[in-house]
Fold these 2 entries.
Entry 1:
Amino acid sequence: MAAAQVWSVDPRTGRRREQVAAEATAGEVDGAVRAAHAARAQLADRAVRAAFLRTAAALLEKSRDALVETADAETALGPARLTGELARTCYQLRAFAGVVEEGAFLDVVIDHPDPAATPPVPDLRRYKIPLGVVAVYAASNFPFAFSVPGGDTASALAAGCPVVVKAHPDHPATSELVAAVLRAAAAEHGLDSAVLGLVHGFDAGLGLVRHPLVAAAGFTGSVRGGRALFDAAAARPAPIPFHGELGSLNPVVVTVAAAAERAAEIGAGLAGSMTLGTGQFCVKPGLVLVPAGEAGDRLVGALAEAVAEAPAGVLLDARMRENFLGGAAERAALDGVAAPVAPGAAEGQAVRPGFLTVPAARLTGPGAHDALLEECFGPLTVVARYTDPAEASAVLARLPGNLSATVHLSAEEAHGGGDGPRLLAELTPLAGRVLVNGWPTGVAVAPAQHHGGPYPATTSTSTSVGATAVERWLRPVTYQTTPEPLLPPELRDDNPLGLPRRVDGRPEHGRLEP
């Protein structure tokens, strides 16, 4: 039987644009993984890896116009958004090049023998080594930053791991173009093209996570799809780490004092955040706890005005549109739920943004509306009106893990007064990133960033954004009483590579490679 064809589809019209590839057969998946496995040694040199990442960024920038045009045709995300996303992606590649050059990610620790310790300490030297081939599952909503050239790929390559990407069916042509650019960058530094493999198809995705030579996996997508792959990774004869970003409601709490102080500002800010990218951000605020009463009414009024003026938009594919419309209608039909601005279908393939309101009491206790505590992907948020702090806390206590949790405080509360400390204490267990007086959409690429959270936000405690994302693809190994000539250069006393490290409990600063 011939392999199924992979088509690029225009979400604005629903029409096929071009045939891009064929779904990978089991043999082709096996070939891509084995070729990547054979290329591992080519990524051993940190200087080569760093140069490769920098060249990849430069070539992506050089190809910007063609990449953005194709990505827009496949995702309808718009040239401005995609141009910014590509710039972020290139910045991230260069940031990981810097991580590689610095070398701190190797976490070198040396303990010389100490016979006086209890028990005696032998000569111990520890650092981290690459796991091996990493399978990356591209996201639908970020065709650059969380797909073929995105954070999972960049951090894995930085760690010294070859990558095989399972392309997302919403942007296969973009995936092929980007993969060609990355392979061209690899070739400039004498690296085999197999350090970056690309496969298409649902079965290919399952084949990847089950392949015995795949050592770890990174995923960004739905709870259903991610959990199936997570379970497959755990069910292998030799289970592997599966770092999945699955789903997040990203709750927001607005205090009474904050609503009284700046209702219009918060309402407008919420509208901008929940409609950004047609509501297709993984950190879109999906549940907002707003106080009942006059100040909360003013906030909801400002939100309604801004959302009503927001343009309709096209979702990434027809299935997502259908799920959004069905999910919004199901939620709006629940008892006690109102729709000040009703979400729904718009002209052609577009959808209208909207929001729902509900008394917070309907989210707890017998007969609670559990559907309102689940993510609805697209331009929709739920505003739950609470009558007192205990009611808001009761809702928060029912929430699963999230990527982000936000609180809007008054000026006095932000300086430590009122409910600020209590709310931060309640929100911190819920999420990997806690925001005060901001909005979660937009995840900065920075060393202190954490993009992850308790399940189902992610399946591990790691981050997929920021310098420490590289740690997902490494494992520690210790050498004991090993003669100096047999040690890796990273662990020798003379520190020939100039790495930052800790020796006998004291930090030693390394040197940056030119």
Note: The first helix runs from residue 26 to 38.
Entry 2:
Amino acid sequence: MATPKKSRGAGAQSKPGRALGLIVIIMVALVGGMFASGTFTPRLGIDLAGGTSITLEAKNEPGKPNAINKTNMDTAADIINRRVNGMGVSEAEVQTQGKSNIIVNIPRGTNEKQAREQVGTTAQLYFRPVLTMTAGQPAGQGDKSATPSPSASSGGKATDKTTGSDKATDKSSATPSPTATTQGRAVTDSLKADATPSASAKSGDDAKASPSPSTDPATAALQKKFMQLDCTDKSARTKINEGAKSSDPIIACGQSQGQWQKYILGPSEVGGKDVKKSQATINQQSGQWVVNMEFTGAGSKKFAATTGKLKTQQSPMNQFAIVLDGDVVSAPSVSSTLSQNAEISGSFTQESAQDLANVLSYGALPLTFHEQSVTSVTAALGGEQLDAGLIAGAIGLALVVIYLVVYYRGLSIVALASLLTSGILTYTLMTLLGPAIGFALNLPAVCGAIVAIGITADSFIVYFERIRDEIREGRTVRPAVERAWPRARRTILVSDFVSFLAAAVLYIVTVGKVQGFAFTLGLTTLLDIVVVFLFTKPLMTLLARTKFFTSGHKWSGLDPKRLGVQPPLRRTRRATRPVDPKEA
């Protein structure tokens, strides 16, 4: 009589060799990738290696409610990255985070002040005609303006090498009241003529003889703001032109020889996009550092048309102001038509000239940013934090190992081997993710790795306890290992899913260093599933076939006596004696 085939049930044995071979191949491939890339240690973050971390937040501008979008954020990050690289900084990190943040990590050895000026400068450059100007307050030490105090000439082609701003300062200082009247008349006439520098302006004597105050409300309001502006107040300088377009007249300030100059400037006819390239060089005649600009074809035509109009005007309306991020960097006078090149000269150092040339070369940011946070860490402090993190991780791992050895005995072999496998996978992935996606191991990421030790150990404990429950129900070790796996598997997957979901939410809703914690926690959670499925379970299946575990050795961790089971593990059925007919 043929016996029916046994169906493969829960107690059927799996083939552990395939899973163990797969995870060995994965580890060999990752280690091989490390050797191929030449990278053997994870990339350290600023808080561990030392350096400066700057978080920039984009701000909505009036009239541009939808300016903060992925395209503009990516463009801004690319420009900032090229600026930082233009400084000669290596291994800097510039990346967008969230919808409105850009994180700039600059390693140690870089001038923090210079880096902050480079990454935070919007670099909106305009060439505007000067309508009027007057001397402001002395430039005090408390002012935080980062602009140099240059006096510029244009490409060496302007015949007057003395800046118009200096001459205007002398004039304003000598006759403050008449000058204000004259300039008020000049700006009135200019604004009525579409605010172009070609508008005819009366001479100073005519203006004094017949001052005509403005009747245009917009012009009167502009003059009022001009008279009230305090150039030493950086906040006031920033707010006074909020919402102004390049085609609108503006009020601006600039420094010259330790004095603030206050300007009313006409609409821009040439912008930063018309500059093809800029370079910091030394002027051979003066021996000073200057910034040379070369215009594009269209920019050259615009600049020639603008300077052609300006050369016929009276001072100060024969000047054009070079305006960078709302501040006047220079205001040279024009006596001849200029076209292709322009030169910004003045009190530049090599560093400030190169910084200005750098931001002009790579263009303006499409958005306005403000510093949300700036963190500077020295190399010594970073090393101390790394040591403290490693010590904390070692202590946590030691406590887990002691607990596993004392409570689970022989089963701790499986747990420790699984922890070692998880450690190798985590280390190699972190090392390879550095050059691949720019992942940097920071202190919160180290904390995430330490927390992951407990998550991984918890998976082993769930499986071990399920095996023990099966043995308590009277099964031997080999069936118990197989029958316990489906129940333990569900619990492990649910637990890891919750951990991964928490890590994903934390990564999405946070920025900066906290994302390092979330990323590491999510990565190690996924690795926990890989290790449990491809290593822990197959290894447990192999060990369950050995005499040490099948015999229920007291150090195996599966001793029936310690688990409250009395041998024999499965009671045999007593043979029944046949009934005697006589007894019946």
Note: The CA atoms of residues 119 and 216 lie 41 Å apart.
